[in-house]
Amino acid sequence: MNNNSCTYDDGSTPNITIVGAGFSGICAAIKLKKELSIDTFTIYDLENDLGGTWMVNSYPGCACDVPSHLYSFSFELNPDWSEKFSPAQEIQQYIVGMAKKYDLYKHIQFQTAVHDCQWDDALCKWIVQLKRSNGQEETIYTDILLTGAGALRIPNIPEVFKQFQGPMCHSAQWDNSLPIDGKNVAIIGNGASAVQIIPEIAPRVKSLSVFQRHPSWIIPRANKVYSGFSKWIMRNVPLVQRVYRWLQFISADIVYGSFVEGSTLHKVSKYLAMKHLTAQVKDEALRATLTPSYSIGCKRIIVSDDFYPALGRSNVTLETDSIDRIEGTTIITREGTRHTVDSLILATGFRVQDYCTPMNLHGKGGVSMRGLVHSKIETYLGICVKGFPNSFVFLGPNTALGHNSVLFMIECQVNFTMQCIREMIKRNMSSIDVQATAQQRVQKELERNLEGKVWTTACGSWYNDKNGHNFTIWPGSCTNYWWRTRTVDFRDFNFTKASSSSSTSVASSSVVPDESINNNRHKSKQA
Question: Which of 38, 65, 279, 453 gives the lowest tally of CB atoms within 10 Å of its CB?
């Protein structure tokens, strides 16, 4: 038997449902196989291939704004990154490569939505309703629910733009047939996606109208292409890649200090951003329009070397007046300026608070996860929520970042989850649920750590909910998060064993009639 094998006393393993085949879901699947020797899991994804956001986003210039050697898993380093900031397609291929290496495709069911999840307290199981793209519906029972759907997934499309009567697409739903070459085009927004799209399409269009609500803080990207020799060194001298990645991590984590309002690093960050703006924008009026009035870091800091030069092109117009209405294919501002265009691009962000959608997750007593998110959700390190036993969320509330790699956070969360699953099985228990007092203690600490940070200043950031509460960003360094999640304090959790008449489970990939819930768990292949 594999020394890492993790089975109940009867030799069985739990059924595990993983929502999402992006970085989070793939990481969880790999860890289940490598660390727990559990392969009784199924991954469900809405799309027709894996990769999550990096499969869906295909707009011109789409790339990561975190260095590639850092934007990868520590257990699966890639010596062959082509650039310091790799394009989306290359990142998606990195995910595909991991799935093939660890034989995960056989565990994935594509074009399948996890529509509804109800916790059954008597059975200590999740009752999961699936909806296939062909309309077929299916109900399964699962012991453990791992959610890695991601927050930057559901496009935010304001109502006013639904009046546009010409070709239109959101940056996250890019349409390669969208008329661009030699056309009059408008793009709404100047956040991370828009800043990548604009330099790519500006040379191709007849005219480009850029609608800016608020300017972004932008710092140099300083991208570089890795030479064949660099890749050879990374591949054949692994220690070099480890050290290089470690130095990138330390450099990024130090930047966290710039989120402390009024700190020296905060002032340095603003100085570097202003220096970049001054160097690239010589026109004083345009420079003033592009200078943010809010504290740097309150919104995501953007990296780019070609956005400012693109705005200086003769065929590009920056519009800062708010949009009043749309008539046909004409965008009319509140001051009456009319922009008639052939195509419209929406770089208007995502509905971050709807990150569970289309899934309805109901815990003990029917409590809705979506309802909690839309109020003021409390979590335990962004991974567990009281009243939702055997449910673990990756990149949940207050675990996103503005300075480092979220893949590091995912690894921390998955490692935490593996410890919880191992301990539950070791104790021969059926469920694990965080204690209310422990969750409240951790949440209060998080709230204290938010004090004095730039995210508490008013800037209209998508980091905050409608009440101005930051429910998105982790208010600490990545090193701090690793320290908090490296070892689980099981005194903060309650374990429950289901009654013998209802403690068994069924295969998570099959239709489950009511009378079959007393089937045995999956018997371990190593047993």
Answer: 279
Residue 7 lies in a domain: no
Q: Is residue 253 part of a domain?
A: no
- Whole-prediction pTM: 0.93
255 in a structural domain: no
* Residue whose token pair is 């800091």: 301
| 8-state DSSP, 226 | P
Residue 121 lies in a domain: yes
In angstroms, rounded to a whole number, what is the distance separating the alpha carbons of residues 480 and 254? 12
Q: Note whether 15 and 41 are within 8 A (CB).
A: yes
- pLDDT tens by residue, 220-234: 999 999 999 999 999
Q: Is 106 helix (H, G, I), strand (E, B) or coil?
A: helix
Domain limits for position 485: 14-154+351-503
CA R_g for the chain: 24
Residues 195 and 128 in one domain: no
Q: Residue 413: count other Cβ atoms within 10 Å of its Cβ.
A: 28
The torsion angle over the Cα atoms of residues 420, 421, 425 and 429, rounded to 10 degrees, is: 70
Pair (339, 373) in one structural domain: no
Residue range 382-394, pLDDT digits in tens: 999 999 999 999 9
**How many structural domains comprise the chain?**
2
User: What does the alpha-carbon distance between residue 87 and residue 68 come to, in Å, rounded to a whole number?
Assistant: 9
Nearest by Cα to 414 from 214, 147, 228: 147
**Distance between CA 152 and CA 147 in Å, rounded?**
14
